Amino acid sequence: MEKTLKVINQMQKKKVIAKYAIGGGIAAIFYIEPILTYDLDIFVFLPQTEHGLVTLSPLYEFLKKKGYQTSHEHIIIEGVPVQFIPAYNQLIEEAITQARETKYKRTKTKVIRVEHLLAIMLQTDRPKDRTRITQLLEQAKINMDYLLDIFKRHGLLDKWQRFRKRFYGK
Amino acid sequence: MANKKPLPTEVEALFRAKQKRRKELANLPFEEKIRILLELQNISHDLRSAKSRDQHLIWDISA
C-alpha cells in the first residue's frame, strides 16, 4: 500500500488533486481491529478546471497515462483498487481539511479523524456503516465533545440519538 | 418484553476476553493491520471461489 500512497502523494504534488484523506474501511482499520474491505477510499478536493468545473477526468487521465487500469468504479494503483470520491458535502470537506497526518511505513499520508469517520458513517447509514459505528465506539479513542459538536454542526444530532436508542437502549 | 436472562459466568468471561482481544488488535500498528487485512482478503477469496462468481478484487501487494 505504500507504493499506492506514494502515487497519490505525487498526484497532490502535481496538483492533479488538491487535498486528500483516506476514508472508508481502511480509515476504520486505522482505529479498530482489522476488518474485511477491498477498497481504498480516497476523499479528494479536486482543482477547478479553467472553465470552473470540478471533474475527475484529469485524475483518471493522469493515472491512465501512468499505465494504471480501471476496474468498474476503481482504478488499480500498484495492486490496490482505489476509489476517488470528490468531497460531496460540507461534512466531507471538513473531514478532509481536518484529517490527521500519519505515516504508512515511511510515506506520509492523511487519514480522516475518527470523529468525522463516525459522523460520515452515521450520515451514510448503510448496514455496514452501522456495524462499523459500533466497532468504533467500542474500540477507538473518541473525543465525545468534538464528536457531538460535529453532529450539531452537520444536523446529525437526531440521527445520533435514534442510533443510540436503537443499539444501546439509551 | 422478554426477560433478559443473565449469561452463564463462563460465557460472560469469554465475551470479555473477546472484547479485550479486539482492543489489542485495534492497537496494532497500521502496517500490521494491513498485513492482516491481506490475509482476510485471501481467506475470503478462497471461500468465495468455491461457491460464488461474485468476486472482489483482492490487493496484489506485499503489504
Tell me what you see in this structure:
The complex is a heterodimer of chains A (170) and B (63). Helices cover 49% and strands 19% of the residues of chain A. With 170 residues, chain A is α+β, with helices and mostly antiparallel strands. The mean pLDDT of chain A is 94. Chain B has helices at residues 9-26, 30-51. Chain A binds chain B through residues 1, 3-4, 26, 29-38, 71, 74, 76, 78-81, 102, 104-105, 135, 138-140, and chain B through 19, 22-23, 25-26, 28, 30-31, 33-34, 36-37, 40-41, 44, 56-61, 63.
Provide the residue-averaged pLDDT of chain B: 85
Number of strands of chain B: 0
Instruction: Specify the overall morphology of chain A.
Output: globular
Rg of chain A, Å, rounded = 17 Å
Helix content of chain B: 55-70%
Helix-strand string of chain B: HH
Structural class of chain B: mainly alpha
Element pattern of chain A in H and E: HEHEHEEEHEEHHHH
How many angstroms separate the termini of chain A? 40 Å
The greatest interface here is:
A-B, 28 and 22 residues
Question: Given the structure, what is the number of helices of chain B?
Answer: 2
User: How are the strands ordered across the major sheet of chain A?
Assistant: 1-2-5-4-3
Percent range for β-strand residues of chain A:
15-25%
End-to-end CA span of chain B: 49 Å
**Segments of chain B where pLDDT lies below 50 for 5+ residues?**
none
Q: Got a strand count of chain A? A: 7
Main beta sheet of chain B, described? none
Helicity level of chain A, as a percent range? Answer: 40-55%
Structural class of chain A: alpha+beta
Could you give a short account of the major beta sheet of chain A?
Answer: 5 strands, mixed
| Mean residue pLDDT of chain A | 94
